[in-house]
Amino acid sequence: MRPVTELSKTDIKNIKLIAFDSDGVLVKKGTKIIESLGFYSRQTNTIDPQVITKLNELKEHFHIVINSGRSSLYLTQIYQDILWDNITLISEIGVFLTGGGFMVQTDYLDQYELETTTLIRQKLLKLIGNPDVAGFEPKQFLTTLHCHLAVPQVEEIVKNSDPQNRFYCWWNQEAYDINSKKFTKSQALNKLLLLKNLLPENVVTVGNAINDADLAGEKSINISTDSQNLQTDDYFAEGEHLGGLAVINHLLSLI
């Protein structure tokens, strides 16, 4: 990988769309969840006003995608100051596309997937009370269980509940994300490209984690803001928190 500062104006001459991960790229990581019988509390970081200002500048030149595991409602709330002109949200690791006046589910869940999701959630609910388990983050189809550290029972529950091996279970150092393997950030982005009549070579992706790995296509320009956790064949911008701001600043300098 090369430093993103080596990305040139010529390199981005065909770029029409820039897809950013949210947590750890545009907004600081960190979610505090407390869940018990009859009580639920969630605290997350807010986005730096400087990032909002820069994104508003950038969307004058490119279509901006926020591609996240968060819910569409959460993303709408924290990015409300840049919505909806020239912006699309991809939420729940590829389940939903939300843009100006529309919300699209990128694929459907069949009966097996619906029943398996319900079964997994019912079993995971029994872990609430474990001191290593914080609680669930509310989402439609993606199951996200926040934990203070890795909890082996979670992966065992998913494996035993999914005999057809159609679900993933990813630990991201903060939470477990669990859903059908058909839903990915790249699958949702490709659907958006079809809707907008764009090609992979018109895209820059910016990510930092395991659920961003599939975004790094051969024809797109791919930038990692955490080279230890996400390797690409293209560029890196160091900075676990707000590495996306360095990318935005460099892109704006090329315009």
TrEMBL record:
List the InterPro entries: HAD-like_sf (IPR036412), HAD_sf (IPR023214)
Recorded hits in SUPFAM superfamilies, A to Z, give: HAD-like
In terms of Pfam families, this protein maps to: Hydrolase_3
Which domain of life does the UniProt lineage start with? Bacteria
Q: Where are the transmembrane segments?
A: none
User: What is the protein's given name?
Assistant: Sucrose phosphatase-like domain-containing protein
Source organism: Candidatus Shapirobacteria bacterium CG2_30_35_20
